[in-house]
Design a protein that fits this description.
9 helices; 0% strand; AhpD-like; mainly alpha
Length: 190
């Protein structure tokens, strides 16, 4: 984790404003409220708008298969050194069909042995988005051999969304939710 304690304190769920209750109601109906949401809801109007875009990226409206989407999210989270993002999405990635050895391989990058050509290209696109905020013509053309134009757009949308999320998590100091360990490689250099 970049910060050992929150810069922006998560709200107390027993002391919510009406606007905060409105934003959190659908989340609370599904189960425990994660620290990211308890933090974002400090600004309910922003949290409400944020959830619309985030909902697109994580829903079936995103044409990437869940497994492919999670490869992009994990790579961005790792590159952004976001312990929270990585921890949450390891669990989501497992539900999307990635094995732990594949999740660990995401850290090694596109050239790691074991990726399909399409998976390697997803990681390469995430790397380019992270380092240059641009998917090169060569990578885009190669992606188009495996993915529709809409899916390629969703690669960019997903990478951009999780860069934003990682910036928020890291800068606000959102702490891991109970039961999520911090990946040892994300402790390095802090």
């Amino acid at each position: 984790m970049r910060l050992a304690k929150p810069r922006v304190q998560p709200v107390d769920l027993n002391n919510l404003t009406p606007d905060q209750k409105e934003v959190l109601a659908p989340i609370m109906a599904r189960g425990p409220v994660l620290n990211i949401f308890k933090t974002l809801v400090n600004k309910p109007k922003a949290a409400k708008r944020f959830s619309v875009w985030a909902g697109y990226v994580l829903s079936e409206r995103n044409d990437l298969a869940p497994r492919d989407r999670e490869i992009v999210i994990l790579r961005i989270g790792f590159l952004c050194k976001s312990g929270y993002e990585w921890g949450q999405h390891v669990e989501i990635a497992k539900r999307a069909g990635l094995k732990m050895e594949e999740i660990e391989r995401v850290k090694q990058g596109a050239s790691a042995k074991g990726w399909t050509e399409a998976e390697s290209l997803l990681i390469k696109a995430a790397d380019e988005l992270h380092h240059d905020q641009f998917v090169s013509e060569a990578t885009w053309s190669a992606l188009r051999k495996h993915f529709t134009e809409k899916q390629c757009m969703d690669v960019v949308f997903t990478g951009a969304q999780y860069t934003l999320v990682s910036m928020i998590l890291n800068s606000f100091g959102v702490q891991l939710d109970a039961g999520l360990p911090l990946d040892p490689e994300l402790k390095k250099g802090f």
